[in-house]
Design goal:
The protein is an alpha/beta fold. It is built from six helices and nine strands, in the order E-H-E-H-E-H-E-H-E-H-E-H-E-E-E. The protein has two domains: about 120 residues, HUPs (Rossmann fold, 3-Layer(aba) Sandwich); about 90 residues, putative n-type atp pyrophosphatase, domain 2 (Alpha-Beta Complex). Strand 8 and strand 9 form a beta hairpin.
Length: about 220
Amino acid sequence: MMLGVLFSGGKDSCYSAYLAKQKGHNLACLISLDSENKDSFMFHTPAISLVGKQAEVIGLPLILQKTKGEKEKELDDLERAIKLAVKKYKIEGVVSGAVESVYQASRIQKICNKLKIECFNPLWQKNQIELLNDLIKSKFEIILSGVFAYPLNEKWIGRKIDKKFIEELKMLKDKWGINPAGEGGEFESFVVNCPLFNDRIKIRNINMIKEGENSFRGEIEI
């Protein structure tokens, strides 16, 4: 099936695209939403400006749709982008990186139903520790691009998701209730390299931006 990838540049959307390809589906394009609202209910924001480079190393065209990020209204922008992908790239469905957010998954499904296309959520309800381990096994190189919950702080920005990271997140889960894969909005990620990429993205620098007491974003330079 010809699929469009709902793509944020983070671990979940990228891994879902990889799994869809492994299942024999054809990836036609990436679909990204650039939100003006840093606290968007639907769309990740810290490294969205770099999805163009990721599209380049994946070798797929990118549909980048601007949105003000207003709750519910931003879904109209998502629908507009998916409609364009249907028309321009003849997609028959979309693949999303939804893991636990019923809010996200249900709204994406509603749009797909309206447009009469399929919706695939290969990570839906997957155990979060298992997900992180699978990413490492599949040779995904991922760094954190933003942290938004105590006790995570600026020292976590740019940190690689590896075995040590997973062990520390397990402890934080037990002590503070942190979702180990960031499903509670605790952190966001950026994929530097994976089997979908033709080349590794080289990070030149990460500028730290403090937005609140427990909110830090990394402005990534490549």
